[in-house]
Each structure stands twice: as C-alpha cells, then as structure tokens.
Amino acid sequence: MMFLVIIALALVLLVTGFEMLLVLGLPALAYKEAFYARLPDPAVVQKIVGGIDHTTLLAIPFFIFAANLMGSGQIARQLIGVVTALVGHTRGGIGHVVVGGSMAFGSVSGSAPATVAAMGRMAYPEMRRAGYSEKFSLGLLVASAETALLIPPSITLIIYGWITGTSISQLFAAGLGVGIVLGLAFAVFVELQARRDKVSHGDRVPWSGRLRAVWDAKWALGMPVIILGGIYSGTITPTEAAAVSVVYAIAVEMLVFRSLNLSALIRITEDSAINTAIIFVLLAMGGLISFFVTLAQVPDMILGLLASADAGKIAFLIAVNLCFFIAGMFVDPNSTLLVLVPPLYPVALSFGIDPVHFGMVVTLNVCLGMITPPFGLDIFVASSTLGKPVTDIIRGVWPFVVVNVIVLLLITYVPQISLLVPRLIYG
Amino acid sequence: MQLLNLLRKIERSVLVALFLIMVLLYTGSVVTREIGGTFASRFAWIEEAVRMMNLFLVFLALGLALERGKHVGITNLRQKLPEPLRRRLLQVIDTVGLLFSLYVAWLAFGLVQFVLKTGQVSPTLGVPIGLIYMAPVVGFVLLALRYGLSLFGVIDRFTPQEATQ
Amino acid sequence: QEFIARIGHLESAAQSRHVHLEKVAELVAERTDGAVELQLFPQGQLGNQRQMNEGVQLGTIEGTVAPAAFLGGFNPAVSILDIPYLLPEDAAEAQALREGPFGKALLDTFSDKGMVALTLWPNGKKQFTSNKPLDSLTDFADQKFRVMDSSILIEQFNALGASAIALPFGELYTSLQTGVVDGEENPLDTIKNMKFYEVQDYVVISDHGAMEDVVLFNPMFWDSLPAEYQDVISTAFSEVIPDLTAHKAAAVEEALQVITDSGTNVRVASAEERAELHDATWGPASEAYVAKAGETGEALLKAYDEATAASQ
Ligand code: NA
Ligand code: NA
C-alpha cells in the first residue's frame, strides 16, 4: 500500500512538471522513511554522491565540453562539411552520417550520453537544414548513441564479463556484430524516413571537390585522428581522450581559427559545467534509488515468480526482457545490470543459453534503458545540450524504441546473430 | 541584488576554474605517463583529484542551472494550466524544492561532520574525505537559495525556459 | 529474525570470498536458530569499497569484507599488508601470524576508527603480469604498471624503476589491450576472472603481495548483539578459514591451468629472485608505510618483527 502511494507521488510530481531531480529525490526520501526508517539519514547523501563518484563517468563532462567548443567554433561545421561531400548525395544523407558518426564516436568514448552530447551539438542543426523533422532528428541522435555500449571497447560488456566469467574478447567480438546490426536497423529506418519526408540531398561531389573538402578540414579532422589514434595506439584511455579533445578544441578554435576568444571560452566552459550538473544530479538521485532497489532484493522476488510459473526457455527470455525494460524505465540501466544479472545468469545457463548470447540480450536491454522514458539518461542529455523540452525528445524517441525492441527480439531469439562474429574470429 | 550578482560571479568563476583545471590535470597525466619512469608515479594523485573536483563542479552548478531554467522536467501539462492555477503550482514547486534542498543540505552537513570525525582520508592525496561531502552541502544550499528567491519573486526562473519552447 | 546484517563486498558470487560468506551465513543462521540473518550483496551492488567501508562506519550497512588495500584511507596502519612479502610463504605460518599477537594488534587498530575488525581472511597472493617480458627484476624498469590507490604500492614499483599508473579497475582490461599500461598485479584467480590473460603475454608467479581481507562490522550493530551471538559469528568466520584457504588454492590452481592453456607465458620466480625482489622493495615500501601510519605503524612493524623473530 505504502509502496503504491510512493509510486503515485512520483507520477504526480512527474506530470505536474516538478524538476526531475525532485521527481526522483522526493519519492526516494519517502521510501526511505517508510521502509528503512532505521537507516541513518546521512546515508541518503552518501548514496547520492556515490551515484556519481566514478572515474569512468568523467568522459561525459569532458565530451560535453569538447562538443560545445566544436559546435560554437568551426570544427563541427568542417567535419560535417567533409561527410556531406562524401555521402551528401545519398537519399538518407546526413541521417546516415549521424548513425555512422555515433557508431564511430561511441565506439571510442564507450559512453552513450557522451555520444549524444557530442553528436547532437554537431549534427542536429544539419539534420534540420536537410529537412528532417525535429522529432525524427532528436530521436535518431538519442537512439544511435546506444551503439556506444555494444561496439568495443565497452565498459558494460566488461562488467557483464566480470560478473559471469565470460570471455571479454568474445563479448567484444559479439558486441561489434550486434552493434552493427542495430546501426543497420537505424539506417534502414533513416532511409524510409528520408523518402517519406522528401529530405533534400545534394548532388554527387566530384573527387576533386571531396579532396578539397578534406584538405580544408584538416585541423578539424585532427580531432577524430587524435581520439581514435590516441586510443588505439595505447597512448590514452577513452576518458583521457575526452580531456585531450577539449585541449585540442580550445587550441584549434582559439589559436588556428581564431573563432573563439577568451570570453567565449569562459561562457562555453560555464555552460558545459551547467550541462554536466543537470545530467549528473539525475545520476546521483539514480544512485539513491538503485540502493533501495538492491536492498529490497527485487531480483529474488522475480526469480521466485519465474520458478513458481515453471517457465520454459522462451518464457524465461521474455521475462528477462520485461524485467530489464521495466527496470530501465526507472533506474540507471547500468545499475540494473549489476543487480539483475547475478540471479538471472545461472537460470539462463540452465536453459542452455550461450553466455555470450545472453550478454548481448542483456546489453541491448541496457542500451534500451538509456532511451526509455521517464528515466532515460540519453533523453536528458539531449534535452540539456540541445535546449529542447524532454517531452519533444520523448516524442521523437519512441519510434526508435520500437525499432530497438524489434532488434532486441531478433537478437534474443536468433542466437546465431550474436555468435557470428565470435565464431568467425575464434572458431 | 548586488549581493546576488556577487554570488553569481563567484559561482561562475569557481566553475570555470574548476573545469579548466580538471582538463589540464587530466591531459597532464597523459604527458607524465609518456615521460614514464618513476616520474610518472609522482602523478598518480591526478585521477583522484579530478574525480573530487568533478563532484564540486556538479553540485556547485545546481543553483545557477535552476536560475536559468535549465533543469529538466516534463513541463507540458503545467504550461497548459490556466494562469492563476499555474502560478499556484509554480509556488508549490518552489516551496517543495526549497524544503527538499535544505533537507538534503542538512543531511549532507551531518555526513561531513561524521566523516571528518572518523578521520577518513583519500588514499593517494591524503585529503580528508569529509571535505568532498561539502560539495552537496554548498550545492544544495545554493539550490535552496534559488528556489527561495523564485518563490518570493526575486528571480524569474520560468520565463527563459518557457521562451525556448 | 531478530538481527539482520547486510554485508556487502566486491567479488562475484562464484569467488572464494562469497562462497565462504555463504557458509558463514549458513552456520550463523543454524547456530542462532535463525535469529541472526546475514544478507549478502556481492560485486559492489551496495557501492564501491570506499563507500561500503564508510557505510559500515555510518551504519548504512552492517558489515563488509574489505581487501586491506582499500582500507588505507580509513586506517593507515592496515597498509602494513601492502608491504611486499609481509606474510610468510607457508600457509600455516601465515595463519599463525594472523592469529598471533601481530594479527590481534592489527585488528585492534580499527577500534578507534569506528569499525569492529573481526578477523583477517586470506585471499591469495598477487602476481605480476605484463605485455613485455619480465625475465628478471631489471626488466621492470620503465614498464608501466597499473597500481591501486596506495602510496606503498607506488613505492614498490618505484623501487623497481617502473611507473605506477592509477587507473580505474573497469578500464584496466582495455588499457592492457591497447597498451596504455604494460602490466598490473593481481592474484591468479582475478587475472583469470577479469580475463586479463587474454590481453597479457607474460605472468610471473612471485607471490609478492598478500591480499588480505578484513572482516568489518558496524560497532552499534555489533554491540547490540548478545555476547553469545557475537561468539557464534566470530567463530563461524574463523572456522571456515581452512576451507577458504583450500578453496582459494584450488581456484588459483584452476586459474593457472586456464592461463597456461591460453598460451600466456607463465614463469615461477625462483627463491633467489623472490629474495632479490624482497630486498629491493622492502625498504622503500616500509618507509612509505611509516610515513603514512606514524607511531601506530612503527609499533605494528615492531610487533611484526617480534612475531616473525619468535617463529624462526
Ligand atoms: Na564503445
Ligand atoms: Na530508461
């Protein structure tokens, strides 16, 4: 009963337009008082801070900062110019660029929110200019960033590998395959949408023109070269790449292009700090909620239900997807991974499900959780960095949630897709 | 009003300085690693320092973010309400926000005192960990201040946000 | 149940620590007729180790089983366990040291830190791995090793002329793969579980670092227990130690097999090489320890010298 009252409170706060930090924070406090009254009160703050006190999260503020610099200066425009010269004549045009760009950027950053921040600032204006609707542009930017968690390197896959003892190399190989499948699904959707919206596309640029565009953007192209080259040569970690990209953006925009002066740098720094705070305060409140979900031992209840229903393999996989989907709507999906995988994994094994395949199902669910409302981290990032209302983004995102669910079902029930790349590489 | 402007100036300066120093330190640690040897070992503290600075960056920006109407929320319904009702709702939000922020700041202050008493220090730098919990104390006080100023009509945190929609 | 203790730790459910925590929970439930329930939360579900330690002090959770390496910020004295080759190689001698005056003195240093330290749990020995050959001590020079947050471990690598690099555990696999760092140190079963051998070419079995766990309880909770329940819990934690040691040894043996089968070059360091490593690192590491732990640290080192002198 008390539990339902708290859920109702959260819903009321949500629809009446309270700040999201209150929508998450107040019910969490109420829950604590109702069910864990004896827990010392300062523990609340310990968990709030704990939700954001991770080194791997640092990539997000740095990439937000870099994206704001590139978007305000010349780098973003030049990078888009290169890609337009190369693929601008195809029907999907800039839409495909967003999918491909997110896969490339997400691959190295390993962080879906960081990918939304960076790609959003660069590509959103261009998508609108090409004639894509606002809804579709926002949805595509948010959704295609999910591939960051699948295409290696991926911390989500490393955590799954550690919990279950699955080979991380095999998971990375599988993640590459599934990430590409997801990217292709989005590309198909882009193509269909481009036909329907009659998106404008340019003429084919001759190779001489393409080379000129590349040469003109040499300084801007240094950015992906530094990030990708730095990481794959083993000079920097993905988090460090984020910081280095800020330094590079400042140097090029201020010294080479002279497109930003000192006061612009200060303004952009300040805006980036505020963008970071808006996202991290939600992660912080998420840390508090995850703590209570863990204490309540919810996964044990789910397992109890599954056992009592005497479920088969197919029903089990449906149940797994449902659990993650529902949890992903309300909690940071990486926390659900930590809480749900340990109890579900042995059951999956008992049904003869391949650990690598199960890892893909779980990771796709984590991806999905990043974009499902009401608590979809990537939605908030897009809202904050593009200055668009959350509801606009949710309207744009739901068709992609559908695409995502279709891919999820495909991956869930056709294990061969997940296992293809690992088998090609490892036999 | 002058006091408020001074406060804003301090908040903005601290945020900008923090963020730029974080970037420089993190980039610097790459450089020290390239130099290598035991020289690189001397900078093992950077990771820890930047992580702590990020906590301050996040919490210290909460107030400014509210003042500028940047915090995310689902505001469609509330915009469709008739004006008197909408005004009343905004007052409720401000009041609840004020009380929530003050309460969390108070709890955070309790945590600071507790952790300082246990003597916990950060493993590499030896900084008292109690100090990192000052970040939510100050941050939620700054947030409470903005909720309060909005409640009493000193600042208008709704117009800029509504204007972009 | 009259008493519920939520106990968090970092390892996964299949690892030795969790398996034996389950045994302890079973024993305690049985012997208290279900009056005391230990609820276990593995793999950092309740937060990272720093947050769990703090949670135990605060009473957010009732207990944690913490690797000593994560406790230096809370109790500098415990970092004595970071000094290379502190514990004797022989398992029985090591256990005698844990149970003797030195072990007791070490556990006592927690009493004014807001934690009840019940016992030390052995959790294996650290080995070095790298992508560059580690044929002798001179090979360590100029290699980059990922190190946990500890000034003593930093000194250990400095003494060998190597770079000690701070990296989060979650980023370590990829960093070893791309070459951000050359190597790291961990027990063999961790190297197996985290799949580090997939991205490392060389392993040296040097047994240089003790991975001791400290069993910690919240003092308020502990004091609220009747003395007989306290006894039941302490006894249960102590009596599983032989099982735990055996389980760990089997896990290490299995890990060694997996790592060797993968084609990774595994080399066992000779007694002379270990002595050499000991001599090179002991001085700087123990100086760094005393610098950090002050008088308490000096006293503990003295207790250690007395205990080891007595056993020889
Ligand atoms: Na990735
Ligand atoms: Na979600």
From TrEMBL, chain A:
Membrane topology value: Multi-pass membrane protein
Membrane-spanning parts: 104-124, 136-163, 169-192, 213-235, 241-260, 272-294, 314-331, 336-353, 359-381, 393-414
A GO molecular-function annotation: transmembrane transporter activity
Cellular compartments per GO CC: plasma membrane
Limits of the TRAP C4-dicarboxylate transport system permease DctM subunit domain: 8-417
Main location: membrane
InterPro entries found in the cross-reference section: DctM (IPR010656), TRAP_DctM (IPR004681)
Origin: domain of life: Bacteria
Annotated compartments: Cell inner membrane
Keywords, ordered alphabetically: Cell inner membrane, Cell membrane, Membrane, Plasmid, Transmembrane, Transmembrane helix, Transport
Protein function: Part of the tripartite ATP-independent periplasmic (TRAP) transport system.
Family classification: Belongs to the TRAP transporter large permease family.
Subunit structure comment from the entry: The complex comprises the extracytoplasmic solute receptor protein and the two transmembrane proteins.
NCBIfam families (UniProt xref): dctM
Protein name in the entry: TRAP transporter large permease protein
UniProtKB/TrEMBL annotation, chain B:
Membrane topology: Multi-pass membrane protein
Gene Ontology terms: biological process: C4-dicarboxylate transport
Keyword Cell membrane: yes
Alphabetically ordered keywords of this record: Cell inner membrane, Cell membrane, Membrane, Plasmid, Transmembrane, Transmembrane helix, Transport
GO MF annotation: an example: transmembrane transporter activity
Transmembrane segments: 49-67, 88-109, 129-149
Database matches in Pfam families: DctQ
GO CC annotations on file: plasma membrane
Cellular localisation: Cell inner membrane
The Tripartite ATP-independent periplasmic transporters DctQ component domain, residue ranges: 22-154
Family in the record: Belongs to the TRAP transporter small permease family.
Function: Part of the tripartite ATP-independent periplasmic (TRAP) transport system.
Subunit text: The complex comprises the extracytoplasmic solute receptor protein and the two transmembrane proteins.
Name by which UniProt lists this protein: TRAP transporter small permease protein
